[in-house]
Amino acid sequence: MRIVVLAGGIGGARFLRGLKSAVPDADITVIGNTGDDIHLFGLKVCPDLDTVMYTLGGGINEEQGWGRTDESFTVKEELAAYGVGPEWFGLGDRDFATHIVRTQMISAGYPLSAVTEALCDRWQPGVRLLPMSDDRVETHVAVTLDGERRVVHFQEYWVRLRASVDAEAVVPVGAEQAKPAPGVLEAIAAADVILFPPSNPVVSVGTILAVPGIREAVAAAPAPVVGLSPIVGGAPVRGMADKVLAAVGVDATAAAVALHYGGDLLDGWLVDTADADAVAEVEAAGIACRAVPLMMTDVEATAAMARAALDLAGAGR
Ligand code: FO1
């Protein structure tokens, strides 16, 4: 079975771990969000690609959900001693090595997709991990700080500001000019199932779909498309989905997110049992909907979610 998953960071990575456990023999292609990417200290940092790679490759810091296990921060401390920041972004020593390799290869002319493949040679994530695009896309967020309207990088909004102020607009800068990375459209067209994990519908899956050609390919794919709600009981399970959904005028409810993706993209949608009353509204939009437990408390619970998504995909065909 060929499965394509459009994934963000922590939620996407944990879902993928459950999916791999549910269907160990499946051929899984992950299209990773690169809108969270940021250039720091002269290095290209790809948080979502790395989170997927480290999580599936056994190198993730489990408590945080991002960054390396057994990490130290000597380089960051030394940079701070030179007055070089930003101090609010926690890049560890082991993680630095990944970014040095990536940046070195990009400087030598390799596209991000080839670099990601090279990094995955070490981590063996057991999936084919493709960036959504080799072109630079950076999500920016418009906010008002101290009465002044400003635009900040998504990482500054999330990590420094902790999404403590409203997101007034979310713009995937560069997305309109970006091309899907090699293999992305082919994988979507050849998929037996396409899944949207419980990743952020705006800044993760939404950014991937904003690359011209990807939304169209998903909508035209012969495979059923099934998503899992990142909103449970009216709030995001983790992250700031409520803030960025508000910026695009969508309520933070399981039903509203399904309708935001729309019946032209989704064939099926899973909501948590806490949101069982959303099923009728989603089905009225022509999207098959089931209520199942959606908390990724451990790999087995996550595998059960993945099985439910695959069952719904089968039911929809
Ligand atoms: N998230 C944080 O909350 N604080 C950090 O200092 C931080 C550093 C960081 C470094 C590398 C990396 O790959 C991810 C990192 N993240 C950090 C996670 C990241 O900001 C977001 O969770 C994702 O971009 C959202 O998908």
From TrEMBL:
7,8-didemethyl-8-hydroxy-5-deazariboflavin binds at D50. It catalyses: enolpyruvoyl-2-diphospho-5'-guanosine + 7,8-didemethyl-8-hydroxy-5-deazariboflavin = dehydro coenzyme F420-0 + GMP + H(+). Gene3D superfamilies: CofD-like domain, CofD-like domains. Keywords: Magnesium, Transferase. Coiled coil: none annotated. CDD domains: CofD_like. One of its GO terms (molecular function) is LPPG:FO 2-phospho-L-lactate transferase activity. Its EC number is 2.7.8.28. Its cofactor is Mg(2+). Homodimer. Catalyzes the transfer of the phosphoenolpyruvate moiety from enoylpyruvoyl-2-diphospho-5'-guanosine (EPPG) to 7,8-didemethyl-8-hydroxy-5-deazariboflavin (FO) with the formation of dehydro coenzyme F420-0 and GMP. Belongs to the CofD family. This is Phosphoenolpyruvate transferase. It comes from Streptomyces bambusae.
